[in-house]
Design a protein that fits this description.
By secondary structure, the chain is an alpha+beta fold. The protein has two domains: 33 residues; 104 residues, Jelly Rolls. A five-stranded antiparallel beta sheet has the order 1-2-9-4-7, with no helix packed on it. Strands 6-5-8-3-10 form a five-stranded antiparallel beta sheet, with no helix packed on it. Strand 1 and strand 2 form a beta hairpin. The longest helix has 33 residues. It is elongated, with a radius of gyration of 25 Å. It starts with 10 loop residues before the first helix and ends with a strand.
Length: 156
């Protein structure tokens, strides 16, 4: 017969033990969460910093050009958020849907796009985008890229 570890304890003692166990579990959850965020920040700083940027893939199709595909995505930027320096294994064509985004494209002056504006970014060119407005900034990005390669190549 299995003996209970709490046999002979008062109800108050049992309550205090349970309370300590709950605090301990809460401490463990918080510690694990913070450790996970630290690991994410160290191993994938690009992903960790991009939390205010939402990328929604709308479509992806093979092209008649061997080894190439087209990907179309909507990218939303919260006010003040930035997607840091990166490039793509192909061309990017940007169409601004709403808001104001500032683009810094390697070899060019910074440009601020508003709804209805367009931008062409050649393959492999490092660039960044930042929402410089006070409301959501959104773009429709169309990529003509090499199939099987990562869409985003993060750089420093």
């Amino acid at each position: 017969m299995k003996k209970s570890k709490t046999k002979g304890l008062t109800a108050v003692s049992k309550f205090l033990i349970m309370k300590r166990m709950i605090k301990y579990k809460s401490f463990i959850y918080k510690t694990v969460t913070l450790a996970s965020l630290a690991v994410l920040n160290i191993t994938c700083p690009a992903l960790a910093q991009q939390m205010g940027v939402k990328r929604t893939e709308l479509q992806r199709h093979n092209l008649s050009i061997p080894g190439r595909e087209v990907i179309q995505s909507r990218i939303d930027f919260a006010p003040g958020e930035e997607f840091g320096n990166h490039s793509h294994p192909g061309e990017e064509i940007v169409y601004m849907i709403e808001g104001s985004l500032e683009y810094k494209v390697e070899g060019r002056l910074a440009v601020t796009l508003k709804a209805g504006d367009v931008l062409f970014i050649p393959a492999g060119v490092i660039h960044s985008a930042k929402n410089v407005g006070s409301s959501n900034g959104a773009e429709l990005a169309t990529y003509v890229v090499e199939k099987g390669k990562p869409l985003i190549v993060q750089t420093k």
